[in-house]
Design brief:
The protein has 122 residues and is mostly helical. Helices cover 58% and strands 8% of the residues. Strand 2, helix 3 and strand 3 form a beta-alpha-beta unit.
């Protein structure tokens, strides 16, 4: 476990890429962007099954109960010791993260704005 404090984007990408796993047992998140960032960098992800984490993770992360220490411990052990499992998680993560781009986000946001504008004119 490395507690880094703030790191810039370039260093963060290097940390994700070099990690055996990104462990994110958060109890609450707005969306869970770090989960997707880690996946896009080729890092196996272990995350909470709470809040928005299941949506952000898709089926590409190992989801755990963030209040259960044994659940977390088992997940870390599995990802770190089972190379085949970790490789499959990384492949799923790459595939899942490709669906989330800033271009797609901007396009969808514009569509929402257009819809709201049209409804408000009625």
């Amino acid at each position: 476990v490395i507690l880094t404090g703030y790191v810039d984007d370039e260093t963060l990408a290097c940390l994700y890429s070099g990690a055996a796993a990104f462990v994110y047992p958060s109890l609450y998140e707005g969306f869970g962007l770090p989960v997707l960032e880690a996946m896009a960098c080729g890092c196996a992800v272990i995350c909470s099954n709470a809040a928005s984490m299941p949506e952000a993770a898709g089926g590409a992360a190992l989801q755990i109960d963030p209040t259960n220490v044994d659940d977390l411990s088992r997940a870390i052990d599995r990802v770190v010791t089972d190379d085949n499992f970790r490789s499959r998680m990384i492949e799923k993560g790459f595939s899942h993260a490709k669906h989330f781009t800033w271009e797609r986000t901007a396009r969808m946001t514009c569509e929402i704005f257009k819809t709201v504008s049209e409804v408000s004119r009625r």
